Amino acid sequence: MVMKKVISFIGLVFFILDIFSQSPDMFKYQAIIRNSNGEIVSGQNVSIDISILQGSTTGSEVYTETHDSTTNQFGMVTLNIGAGNQTGFGSIDWSTGPYFLKLELDGELLGITQLLSVPFAKYADNAGNVFSGNYDELTNKPDLNNYLTTESDPVFSNSLAASITGEDTIRWSTSSTFSGDFGDLLNVPAGLSDGDDDTQLTEGEVDTYVANNGYLTSEVDGSITNEIELPTQTGNSGKYLTTDGTDPSWATVSAGASQLNELSDVNTSTVTSGNILVADGTDFESVSVSGDATLASNGDLTIADNSVDGTDIALGSDAAGDVMYYDGTNWVRLAKGTNGQVLTLSSGVPAWADASGSGGVDSDESGLKIIRGEVSSSGTKLYGSGFSSSGSGGAYTITFSSAFSGMPTVVATLKANDHYSSIEVKTISTSGCDINTIETYNELLHAEGFTFIAIGPK
Asked: What is the pLDDT of residue 208?
């Protein structure tokens, strides 16, 4: 097996200058191939990939080629680098080095070495072709005897520039001698021959113009002394219009308390910071705010905490036990209910109702106690009093706040009219009971809301 290792590099300086008058687009490279035991491999077919890298050993590839060769009896291969791609090799700019030669044998890296001198004979070819600067040494020189002596461009011939004469160019450098008098003008348009044509309106034309644009042609109210002509408004923003009896003018409102002088019916002698103006039927008086409310000079009104009571707000016929509620617009007094009633909501408005209609604890003359209530499917008490509720998922417990003196009777009803569920009261005692809600078709517990009533001796 061939070991991919080059033992020596031979002939990098061999450049066949003796064959060509200029350096060819290639250079010769020789290497000896040995196997893993260091023995020369002769008569072996090998594939060698050549790459020229620019800038460094890891630089970009500017040229690549592949050589399929056979070692001779000494294990040597001889390659003409550049022969595999003449066009690409000839386009390398050797002046932008350094350049490095990378070799791979049968796909494995042999090594990378810098090109120091030989390929740069190609750069010498180009360096030798530097132009001397002598015009006579140029090739393909233009014929300067074939310039135009007459204008043949049809575009120019049809332009205004083609009509410029020598006399015109003389006038360009001389000043105008025009007198400036209208009468000295040439080619005056028709209608302006006397310099004043069509610039004056007749009386009839003036009347027609005024009528078409809505201007007054006579005094409407019969007087010309009552018309208001405002003074100029420029620079008078925020001012008010006043008059001295003869002419109108703009005036500035004075800052501070003196502004009240503009109100003739205000008694300014009593004005105090934090007061309010109150009309007494004749004029305005400055009145202080006192008691539970204070008024700051900036207009903020403050009412002291807990200072408003029944003596401050009278709703009429107030009595102990009355309730105040807000109906969205005003505060309304709800008269107190009777003993045993509970406060309920109807369409969002509070009202008193009998306990028998809304859940709670009742007793009658026979000495019985009644507890009513509603429980949600999650075991939360929705309304009623005298009990607490717990449980979920169909198994619920009702605990009475105070025990019956004897065994009560408990009746429960599903809140929803569900034909697929049923309800069962279990384990009744004087202190409470258990209630289960069940799915009828599989007899499994199922969460449902319900109402109940418990009746028993007090």
From this structure: 80
Residue type, 354: D
Residue 49's identity, in one-letter code, is D
Sign of CA dihedral 56, 61, 63, 69: positive
CB 13 within 8 A of CB 47: no
Nearest to 316 by CA among 302, 328, 330: 330
The answer to whether the CB of 403 falls within 8 A of the CB of 431 is: yes
Residue 361 exposed, middle or buried by CB count within 10 Å (0-12, 13-18, 19+) = buried
As a whole number of angstroms, the distance between CA 80 and CA 93 comes to: 19
Give me the DSSP letters along 146-183.
---SS---HHHHTSGGGG--HHHHHHHTS-------GG
Domain with CATH 2.60.40.2080 in the chain: 359-457
The token duo for 16 is 């066949």
Give me 141's structure tokens: 């020189």
Bridge partners for 46 per DSSP = 69
The alpha carbon of residue 167 and the mean position of all alpha carbons in its chain are separated, in whole angstroms, by 69
pTM comes to 0.28
Structure confidence by residue, pLDDT tens digits, 191-248:
666 555 556 777 887 778 777 776 777 776 767 666 667 788 888 887 888 888 778 8
Classify burial at 103, counting beta carbons within 10 Å of its beta carbon; exposed 0-12, middle 13-18, buried 19 or more: buried
For residue 258, the SS3 value is helix
Cβ pair 44, 33 in contact under 8 A = yes
Strand order through the sheet with 27-33: 6-10, 27-33, 76-81
Task: Report the C-alpha gap between 432 and 224 in whole angstroms.
Answer: 102
* CATH classification (class only), 6-126: mainly beta
Judged by phi (left if over 0) then psi (alpha if -120 to 50, else beta), residue 441 lies in alpha
User: ∠ CA(218), CA(224), CA(230), 5° rounding?
Assistant: 110
What CATH architecture is 359-457? Sandwich (2.60)
